[in-house]
Amino acid sequence: MGYVRKWVQIIFGFLMNGYWGFPFSRSIYQGPMKVICAPGLNCYSCPAATSYCILGSLQNLLANVRLSLEAGQYYLGLYVVGSAGVLGGLFGRMICGWACPFGFVQELLHKIPSPKYRVPRPLRYGKFFFLVVFVILLPLFAIDEFGAGVTWFCKFVCPAGTLEAGLPMLVLQPSLRAGLGLIFWNKFVILLLFLVWSVLSSRPFCRVVCPLGAFYALFSRFRMVRLRLDKGNCITCGACHPVCPMGVKFDQSPDDADCITCMKCMTKACRFDAIYLEVGGIPVRAGRTLARPVAATSRQKTEG
Amino acid sequence: MTYSEDKKVHRVRKGPILALLFSLLLWFVGIALGEPDRVMELARQVCLSCIGLG
To answer: What angle do CA A50, A137, B49 make, to 5 degrees?
Structure first.
């Protein structure tokens, strides 16, 4: 399953960044596919990006909502939120595990041999702070004298934007280097911090900061595709804990907001068929027939 | 509920369907308001301030 997931991640990476004419055009893709949202975190100012970024578009629309209303245009972000909501309702954070290019980059970095550290659990709430404050409230209410706001998360935080758009654009358009300032270097340091942290910890950006992950996490109980726990088979051995790249203890919180449905717990850890995939309430992965007796025996041994 | 019942009794969940229908409603309203054109317009430009260069 890990092999399949890796290929799906690569394919989605290419689908979202499939414009390879940028070295010749020295600019970004401007075709009709830009009306489709990128499911994962993928900057739309990336030269190769073929789709729009949910977070970038939403912040832009909210930042300029007063101006658009004054012009009689009701650009409230409904199309963007609706698109993200459809993805969230179908897959939730499975998108983070299977279709996010920046998540994939972090996973690759984490394969570099080094001491590995856990991400403290309380930090996981940070991503909801960034979603509410940096993506919604600040663009909406921190406005200039003309009534226009700023894309706070993109401008001051987003390391994916620096990696996928900021740095490549500096290479493609050298004239932009003259405008390098504190904001860029601040973002560059944030990028470096997360790249190094990704080597030491698993998916730190996804767990601590990513507002898109926070949005999809809202659907953790209301998504079509999710992993379920068969309590009758689970012996609470904890084998699912160390394999989870997001630090989820699946047997304790099967609807955890951080579960990216990578299925490592199901395919690599659980020997008792206690974890299965469910689509819209219907299990799609049949249990192994020997699982029940093995689980029962193990439980008896544990209790004994 | 026994193991076999747990595996056999399946109910289609309403939560995801409601979430999807609500999201689709937002999506259609957004389309009706002409938002895709604005999104396209934004996505076709390099947002320099967004990437820390402006």
So the answer is: 45
